Amino acid sequence: MIPYGKHHIDEEDIQAVVSVLRGGALTQGPTIESFEQAIAHYVGARYAVAVSSGTAALHLAALAAGIGPGTKLVTSPITFIASANAGLYAGGDVVFADIDPQTVNMSPSCLEKVLKADPAIKVVVPVHFAGLPCDMPAIKSLADTAEAVIIEDAAHALGATYPDGHRVGSCINSLMTIFSFHPVKAIAAGEGGMITTNDENIYRKLLRLRSHGINKLNDEFQLAEQSSTNGELNAWYYEMQELGFHYRITDIQCALALSQFKKLDSFIEKRREIATRYDLAFRDKSINFKPAQLSGGSQSAHHLYVLRFDFDALGLSRNDCIKRLRGAGIVTQVHYLPVPMHPYYRNLGFNPLDYPNSVSYYQESLSIPMYFDLSNNQQNFVINELFKLQK
Q1: Is-above-0.85 flag for pTM?
Q2: N or C: which end of the chain has fewer CB within 10 A?
Q3: Does residue 5 form part of some domain?
Q4: 78 secondary structure, DSSP code
């Protein structure tokens, strides 16, 4: 079977993990900091905090940004549920701003309407869908006017760049950016996530929240009478200063991720080559499917390649197409069911019809194979099988 996404692991990656297993610290060791420094330097941010998953990164970022009771987080309906759930995890509420149908990213005009209608919104979470950067200058301007901060959900977008050349994750237009290292993402850690920021206070708070709320670095102790003896700091002493979590990542995972990171540029280059070949194959306006994202390919990290189908004109349902392609040995997927469509969110009172662009996209979308090891022959086979659906 040709999957829609797949990680690439080589002998160098395996040996990197073996080296950690043989060499000392399995967790809370130096490999974690090395990985953090590598990502921070690559994206151009001052700080990076590695955590156990992209979902954990979103949760901690929402907390660090001040989400809590009486506040709201706004994000895109077309995303994995974790982007929205982070607001609920932090004790706040969630609202949605519909997508731009040309980019599948949050629409600045829709965001503007939502922000003007709801002063309780304190955090904006734009999602760089499929690796294509959002219009961050426009979103930043709107967020500033509403006195809201921005957390970029770049789970799909490690290696992507903005039109001005800065890398996604540099936080030039946001307070924080989160990444994911799930196996189908640009680089794999097994599971893992990262938060980048340029704000030292946020960085320190993230470090505490990652590890049970315990003071880190040289944070000042709050109970001087417990922390020292005869004016000298007690060597064993630490404090839980706020309610935190066990969201630490291990050195084992970071060894794999750091080894993978060394190949990131080649991974992105190959994905862009694959995307370009798909774009050329599907540019014929007479066919009943087209690329979901029609511009920005040179900036995208190409985590996914999504087609939008006119299933009625094709004379097939989406399920029929999925089954036919699977019968030929090709696995496809849908990214994503709009978050307001899920039963949990419907029970909160959300109506999917309030987000017509997202619903229209969802009804037409299908993700086709996109990953580093996809060969030219395999890609040609996928293209040919898709064209067979027209017959």
Answers
A1: yes
A2: C
A3: no
A4: S
